[in-house]
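Notebook entry, cofactor series.
This is the third protein in the set we're modelling with a bound small molecule. For this one the ligand is pyridoxal-5'-phosphate. I'm keeping the input format identical across the series so the outputs can be compared line by line later. Sequence and SMILES below, as received.
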Amino acid sequence: MLSSRMSKLHPYVPGEQPKDRIYIKLNANENPYPPSPKVIKAVRSAAKKNPEKLGLYPDPDSNELKEAIADMLNKSGGVLCRANLEKGKKNGSGAIVTPSEFDKIPFVVTPDMIYAGNGSDEVLSFVFYAFFDSDRKLVLPEHTYSFYPVYGGFYNIPLEKVPLKSDWTLDTAKMLELANKENSSIIFANPNAPTSIGLSRDEVREMIKAAPKDRVFVVDEAYVDFGGESCIPLLAEFQNLVIVRTTSKSLCGAGQRLGYLVANKELVDAVTTVKNSLNHFPIDFLAQQAGIAACRDAGYYVRAAQSVAFERDEFIDFLREKGWSVLDSQTNFVFCKKQGVNGDEAYRKIKEEGILVRHFATKGIEEYLRITVGTHEQMLALREVMDEM
Ligand SMILES: *Cc1c(COP(=O)(O)O)cnc(C)c1O
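Returned structure with ligand:
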């Protein structure tokens, strides 16, 4: 009964969501803080004041949301944890946000440079469909977001996986060599997952300069708000750059499923064409309202990103003191191992104590744990467990 293409599917395995007991969840890189109170209010009043809207189709192109996203990027510079805050409440809500000097985008991001979709996973899927072909290998790091190979299988796109260097950074020279050999596209997460390390904007610029000009170059910035360097400013220099982002991590919105990409208009239009051929209305009415309210209260999320970055650095100091090797992190998670501690056993022991972290049985990273940064209280509880290992 199944189509022949079914045999080629290798679905993504998400971080577990067990129901048997209540765990402290540090395994899926979700944000430990709730959305801004203004988001809750916007969703409530949207349902209350306009109940008829729930019976109507939403705006298929999420125009108001795209405006709000563009506005937030211009105001914050695209890296929330370094943006400046003025006035506002203690939690940052309502504050005036201005970009740090380093992150300031040297042009105005306009709504026609944004495509918004149902989580960045869906956005990525449309990117794979629109820009990658089965006649040449897509170049990506061996260890990166594990959904890319899943989409490779789904769309029948062959992959060229390039091992990371011994310091866990991308082997950019090798990636470029292979991309130029077949005139291929390149995709990676920056900062990368599960390593938590990023390339600088200058390093990415040099990479794009040396990559095929007539192929799309994709940078997934899911974690950039926690301290990476955004490549949005590079859109002024490169017509083939596509930047994918999500509200799931830094905008405390994993449950509302909102992702987007930033690129030059022609590429945005191509992805919109794919969307209109597969799912005309990817973002429901309430999620659009939630996303708009979140982007309009960027100050709240600046504070949240700063808190996560602070907790992360404290936790890294703690782990190193206790003899763990930890990669420097620009994200909301840490990637760590300890000599003599088995990765899988450590994961199980921590789970027994009521805390979920992520362990990958993948060859090459099986000694490591990937731990999402939670609230201060959650990290104290985890410290207590890890202290004894
Ligand atoms: C979490 C994550 C995504 C998926 O984000 P959603 O918007 O929740 O689908 C995409 N890319 C990377 C690198 C991620 O870590």
